[in-house]
Amino acid sequence: MTKTRLYLVGLITLVISPVPTILWSIFVDQIPLNELFQFNNFELIPVAYGIEIGFCYAILASTLLKAPVFDRIPLPLESALKTLNINYIDAIFLSICAGVGEELLFRSGIQSYLGILGTAICFVAVHGYFSIRKPLKSLYGLIVLPFALILGLGFQHFGLWFAISAHAMYDCVLFAELIQKRN
To answer: Is the confidence at residue 81, as pLDDT, over 80?
Structure first.
């Protein structure tokens, strides 16, 4: 994978992932876009909570991932990111793309149909963190699942911007750690 391709994946996540939610909301649920994006509900306190939760959970996940059992499990994207020489700007861009695109898809879209638990399981599964053929790989999924539940609960109580900021911060911290590890 090249860096250009990684940026393309980020843009696809940002732009294409929310399309099913947007189309469903407009044509089936008849929800206006400003309501779907919750622009009227944007407040700094839920965003700050999201940043704090995302940061703290990333530190927790990072600590758990240092357990010896994870030495035998290739972490998602770790090998690809090592070869791409990503920097902090790349990490911020990719984190924002994932935070916005995936939270619009999962929390604003899927969660209203599958509920918090169903959406959290779907979120982890879509990322490839559960594996029947490689059960050890599912350990990473068990670390991410509580965070996905927190995103769902936070979305329900604080709104979309909490979930976006928590997700983006979580990814940012883990990217930063990979960059530090590489250097």
So the answer is: no
Residue 18's CB is within 10 A of a number of other CB atoms, namely: 22
Cα(94)–Cα(88) distance, rounded to whole angstroms?
Answer: 10
Helices (H), 18-134: 19-27, 33-36, 44-64, 78-84, 88-105, 111-126
- Print the domain residue range for 46: 3-182
- pLDDT, tens only, 131-142: 888 888 899 999
Q: How far is CA 64 from CA 56, 59, 144, 166, in A?
A: 12, 9, 11, 19
Q: What is the pLDDT of residues 110-121, one digit of tens each?
A: 999 999 999 999
| Structure token pair of residue 167 | 């997700």
Number of domains in the chain: 1
Nearest to 152 by CA among 125, 109, 102, 115: 115
| Phi-psi label, residue 115: left if phi above 0, alpha if psi -120 to 50, beta otherwise | left
- If residue 125 lies in a helix (H) or strand (E), which one and from where to where? helix 111-126
Comparing CA positions, the residue from 80, 92, 101, 94 lying closest to residue 15 is 101
pTM listed for this prediction: 0.94
Contact in structure between 25 and 31 (CB atoms under 8 Å): yes
CA–CA distances in Å: residue 67 to residues 64, 147, 166: 6, 19, 24
82 pLDDT above the threshold of 80? no
